[in-house]
Amino acid sequence: MAAFSLLPSAHIAPKPTLHFIKASTSDLPKTSPSPPSTKPQLPSHKPHHNIREEARLHNAATVTTNHPRFSAKYVPFTSITDPSSSDESYSLDEIVYRSQSGSLLDVQHDMSALKHFDGAYWRNLFDSRVGKTTWPFGSGVWSKKEWVLPEIDDDDIISAFEGNSNLFWAERYGKDFLGMNDLWVKHCGISHTGSFKDLGMTVLVSQVNRLRKMNKPVVGVGCASTGDTSAALSAYCAAAGIPSLVFLPANRISMAQLVQPIANGAFVLSIDTDFDGCMQLIREVTAELPIYLANSLNSLRLEGQKTAAIEILQQFDWEVPDWVIVPGGNLGNIYAFYKGFSMCKELGLVDKIPRLVCAQAANANPLYLYFKSGWKDFQPVKAKTTFASAIQIGDPVSIDRAVYALKHSNGIVEEAKEEELMDAMAQADSTGMFTCPHTGVALTALNKLRRSGVIGPTDRTVVVSTAHGLKFTHSKIDYHSKNIKDMACRLANPPVQVTADFGSVMDVLKKYLLSKSH
């Protein structure tokens, strides 16, 4: 990729002073209130009312004093693992990414307020919003608004009606290659920008939109990215009219991923380092400039990503699968899935959670090595090049979150070598899917666990596909052209060159049909 030149230095405003104010929570009603209507009566549609205006009119006419005030706040992640360790907390309207001790933060919901309604109520409410265009509930994320950002005004939400992605029954793949009859693939990549990152970015950019309206010191939003994060950030910022800044590792992402932030008007810096280097730089920059940090160090994104777990339960009519397999790089997503499942259990929507598997590329596998050591010795690694470029991360920000999720879900970590993940991707594609290399990592983990007998033939298993295969056509072309060094590409399906005459075409077709008749 051509280098991007920086403009002459411009005046930079002094670093804003951020005042951290401890969040307060209001007292809850003493008696159980009547639940709000699950099917609000909107005003009659008029041609000059768009869906956002209809929601505004409805909210203005709705009396909400008869139900508890749902709320959420930032708390140190260490207080999740050890509730007695700290009473530190922050309002979600503060710009803060770590606790005073340097711990990651977590969004903690007022579970006592949510528990005023039973599991059946929440199931019915969430189900009533699926497939609707009512703002903002047509989104798979915002249909769970009370569990995501309960206090944000609907008018501040920036949404592309993300989520509600296909849960694909992988019938042939499961039957022919794994001897399984209940294998599913959650196609999170069938989304606005082609990856699961949309689920978190709608939440983060919506909150930034709210902060800017509150005159908080936020000029733009920035991220380090291996591709998909920058695509999601730039799209949602463009929709909101908020400047986005992207730090990308030079020559380490696909052109399909690179073109997205450029097309959406992001200010893109191509930096001669890897993702971990970009991450270090963006953290330093956001500490000095009024740029809001959008990486998964920011826990807001995980609130959107956890809705994919809730959505899986919805799609199974609230029956819990046995296994969910998630590719892992920076490791926020495995924790997000755990959080979604555990909230559903705590609030009575389901009575258990699935076992989680985190799948890593062998070329970037610090969590796998930590797991194999019995959780005794975590060491970052220098990530090597992998076709699963979005998880090419050797020093994951969310390592503590991931370990917590895996320990509390009786989870497993597996790895995939480059040839294994590319073969798995090709094999899945041959049964009608069109998967990304990261899904190939997850499918390789499934293959290994199935062969070892850990996953049984009738276990209901969900593989999370995190990005659309169209973002990775170059790697697919190289595979099917057998143009990858030191890789057999044993499932390659290159086009057959034939001369333009009837006899030659017939000879080739007869040979092909004969090979398929056995």
TrEMBL record:
Its EC number is 4.2.3.1. Residues 25-48 are annotated as: Disordered. One of its GO terms (biological process) is threonine biosynthetic process. The modification N6-(pyridoxal phosphate)lysine is found at K197. Gene3D superfamilies: 3.40.50.1100. GO terms for molecular function: pyridoxal phosphate binding; threonine synthase activity. Residues 159-466 form the Tryptophan synthase beta chain-like PALP domain. The keyword Transit peptide applies. It is found in: Plastid, Chloroplast. Keywords: Allosteric enzyme, Amino-acid biosynthesis, Chloroplast, Lyase, Plastid, Pyridoxal phosphate, S-adenosyl-L-methionine, Threonine biosynthesis, Transit peptide. SUPFAM superfamilies: Tryptophan synthase beta subunit-like PLP-dependent enzymes (SSF53686). Its cofactor is pyridoxal 5'-phosphate. GO terms for cellular component: chloroplast. It catalyses: O-phospho-L-homoserine + H2O = L-threonine + phosphate. The keyword Transport does not apply. Pathway: Amino-acid biosynthesis; L-threonine biosynthesis; L-threonine from L-aspartate: step 5/5. Catalyzes the gamma-elimination of phosphate from L-phosphohomoserine and the beta-addition of water to produce L-threonine. Homodimer. Belongs to the threonine synthase family. This is threonine synthase. It comes from Gossypium armourianum.
